[in-house]
Amino acid sequence: MKRFFILCALALCLLPAAGAGLNEKSSTTAEQWPDSTWTDTDGAYINAHGCGILKYGGRYYWFGEHRPEQYQEGQDGVTCYSSDDLHTWKNEGLVFRVSEEPGVDIERGCVIERPKVIYNPKTKQFVLWFHLELKAHGYEAARSAVAVSDTPTGPYRYLGSGRANPGIYPENMTEEQRSRSWNVTAYKEWTPEWIQAVQEGCFTLRDLEGGQMERDMTLYVDDDGKAYHIYASEENLTLQIAELSDDFTTHSGRYIRVAPTGHNEAPAIFKHDGTYWLITSGCTGWAPNEARLYSAPSIWGPWTKHPNPCRGEGSELTFGAQSTYVLPLPDGGFLFMADIWKPQNLKYSEYLWLPVQFDADGTPYVEKP
Ligand code: GAL
Hints:
The chain has helices at about 1-15, 20-25, 175-180, 190-200, 200-205, and strands at about 50-55, 60-65, 75-85, 90-95, 110-120, 125-135, 145-150, 155-160, 215-220, 225-235, 240-245, 250-260, 265-270, 275-280, 290-295, 305, 310, 320-330, 335-340, 350-360, 365.
């Protein structure tokens, strides 16, 4: 009986949304994206993790990590699903494939994480970036890879992979910091001396010649058309924000360090009323932790830390999820997108999409009903 009443109440709540446009839908509750119905139009479970969304020509494209049924099969590449309403998702298949050729960077067995696609109106190309780890090398490589396509649904053509901005100092590193030399191995991790060394840029300098480490990542295209790559660097201890070249396929050479020793991953950025907001997670692998929130008046900072952006029950562990993307909606709202990882079988990791809400002072927060 109780269930009947709940169902009736639910149906009543949903009634006004029936037939409503995306605008109405997007500003209502997260129950419209329930954890249990993440299937595509073929009824198959959506396999697109660590996602990024591209809006192009009025349609949404959801790009994500393909995760195999059996771990040892390796990932197939990057998957894509398309939708006009963010609810009904058509499987567009694998838009980027790993290679079966031994020895290449993207050989089957490599790790592909957090793919993001942006459109470049100058080159009329869709540009895919993802975090790449080489086959059988764990998470040592810490590279980004880039591929391009003339259509959103690919196939994306691999351009290459590497680390960020070799030989170039971050803009917000002082002359004094640039001239230091550190013997990092002499310090025990998390001692005050080690923390200070990391904050002063010991890993930035260590990696200067070969380029900065790039792991969890996202992309952002600003209103002026400039694009940015935001990634966990320096042994996942410091985020970096790097401007992309005009064609979006490389870094321009301008970059900054953000929150040194903050230990941030899973960056998701958006801009609201002129303020840049960055939601991240801590670094606990597949296990959830408390989300973090930063804001800045400019992409170049200064970045200020705020309290946990999640509120209510389960908020101390981001409701069991980890941020991946914040999608601007046509009605001016934003959708917070996160992964509920299932490390025993990553393919069936779940998704959590919740509307971003704002306090009177403009601070964003996320609540799970
Ligand atoms: C998480 C990270 C994921 C993946 C995982 C591997 O912290 O956000 O993208 O790299 O670690 O353990």
